[in-house]
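Hello again, I could really use a second opinion on something today. I've been puzzling over a protein and I'd love to understand its fold better. I'm sending you its amino acid sequence along with the backbone structure tokens. It would help a lot if you went through both lines with me. I've dropped the whole record in just underneath, so have a look.
***
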Amino acid sequence: MQKKSKAEFEKLYQTAAVMHARLRTGDVLYSSIGPSTFFFSHAGIVGEDGKIYHAHPLGGITESLPAYLSRHRYGGSITLLRPKAGPAEAAAWAVQHIGSMKGYRFNRTLADTNWNYCTKFVWQAFSSGCGIDLIPATGRQSKRWIFPRHIKRSAHFDPIAKFSLEYRL
């Protein structure tokens, strides 16, 4: 295993410091597709404490921004999405329900918080936390897929910034 250089950790912490200055409660971090996310996008929501709440193969986890960024590799990017409404309520829901997640599973049942995946968890935070359906469908649905592109393209978010990941951890 190759030892990680101090310079690369400094790049990670510089990126985190720049991002942290822009973050607000309820913001969503959307990562680009790449090997560190198994060639899917990833999303997490910022809690009132500044930590990132997201679904992980181990279940729901809470991480500092540097720890969250360390999961995303060189060459990728993270887009900061700011909700137009309900950020505090969505974040509070995420904080309250992160511990109920048992594992990462692609599960279409929208009400199920036990077996979850990242973009469905973000959708649930807004839907259950403040009554906002990020991807409105015709009629009430209890099952559907919430794809990463639904979060990134949702009219309920304004893209605030895009951060290039230039550290090699």
